[in-house]
Amino acid sequence: MAFKVDMSSKNLLVPNSVSKILPFCPATTAVLCQEPVVPDSKLVGGICKDKRLAWVVSGSFLEIVRTATGQRQACWRFGAMLPDNNLLINCVSEFKLGSSSFFLVGIETSTGSGMVCLFDHGRSKVIRSISIKYAVTSMEPISSELILGDQLQLFCGIVAVGTREGHVYLIDLCLDEADFTSNEVCSSSLLVITARTHDLDSKRRNCLLAKEHVCLEIGDESHKKTTFQYRKSDSSIMTALASGGVFVSSLKYIPQTCTLAVGFNFGCFQLWRLDGPVLEYSSKYEDDLSPVSHFAYQEPENDPRNYNYLWVANSPIQADNSMEMPASLWLFQLAYGEKEWLHDYGFYLYKEFQSCGPRYEYDLTAEPFNQLNSSCYGSRVTSCHTIGDDQCSPLRALQPEQDNDCSKSIEEEDRHAADLSICVFVWESPSSDPAEQTRGFMGVFDINRWYHAQMPTTLRPSEEACSYFAFYSMAHAMEAAYPDAFLHAYVPASSLSRFCPAVVHEQHFYPSSLAFEVLCLLESGCMQVRCLGSQRQVLQDMMRVGPQCLLQPLVVYERCQASHLLRNQCDVGSSDCSTVS
Fold first, then answer.
1. Rounded to two decimals, what is the model's pTM?
2. Helix H or strand E segment including 428
């Protein structure tokens, strides 16, 4: 009987099924197969949170495709109207406005300057184009404007932009002005302000008349001529670096803390609270760290203390071809003095920042359960996200005729924030043998089970069945995709389900018991990967083989017992367990 096991490690789970590649349409494929302007440059891509659309970038070309059909939704070649044949797209981010979605595109021109473009995929048209002094390297939309500082509440449509030389801007897209349009040829300029700027309301009105955008720079005191000064929260200088070698590699807005996490290519990160803005934390500087490539936010369930958690991934960025060092994950614990329930947003707002420190470390290697003796020569994070992170939306509004007592009781009942307990990591690691294919893995981390395991600081070498971290081998998926590389992987919250048998065992709450689907974006198409979890996988294998599985009853018994599908002898025998031999 052929059960689903990975022969490279008895502890690794494998997906139940891997679909065939759904190819992109010929027009998209022709664009992506063109010779890149920059030699050895890679395709980069991402999947939107509603999983209906995905984007792929090749040089200055942006292709937006429908994941269900592979058909082209929109396309654009940036720089064609300038003309600038050496223009590069460095980053793309989905931007939601009500029920509509757009794409923010970060650009580096041939002169080293940058642009931020707002692209309407419904019309295949650039509707905002903003020139920036420095090349754009990272972007992140800012939502929940009402909990931001007074200055930012005047903005309408905010995007955080990171650039070369380590600058971070909060740009007003002026979406309250319907007739305010611009394009690559007639790009708008910026008025840069700081937290010390006064009379912003009148300045913004003057900018609108002049077709300009206002932007608030955070951390402007870190830039001194040709030096970037990496500072602590008390403004003291931790280290000074040459500006030309610094860039912002990752940005993450966390509405639950009103915080912008800023990651740099030298491996450190900062936390900026945006109701100031105020620098609340800077991570320790160390030499030879990989860039901060991803952030992910998690909240435990029913923690009486005001704690939440931030994953920080140090990894080669997506466009980098080298994988010289193993990527690593760090889980930081953030402590706050109090939290306030925001009924209109459906989450707790944490206030009075107290501390931040690392609580868990994990190296992403080719041997997930063997951290100490791994022969990994390097790795790269393909995807890092919290399942359900996009579910923070306003709850239903109370009716005006409801009295105060009724309103309070309903609000108490509605205090159910999105479940942010499950985080997914996908990474690739090259084999020590150059002739072998790059190996891929997926980890599923449950922070509630980590709490239950007494919050260990790392994966224990002897831990054969980890209660809070499940690992999948993506070998079959990578073989099916070959020679394509994985650009992105995304687990929709709607696909996640727990194993709920009639008789529940503790192991049934492990992340290894979760069933879910993974949408994978490849260089030439999309692929669906289905994971059933350990218990459902055993049952599925038995159904697939049929009665012939009884030819090997010991194998069936051992697999069912290992997955705790069988009751203990004490449960079905005598109440006196000592009588059971």
1. 0.90
2. strand 422-429
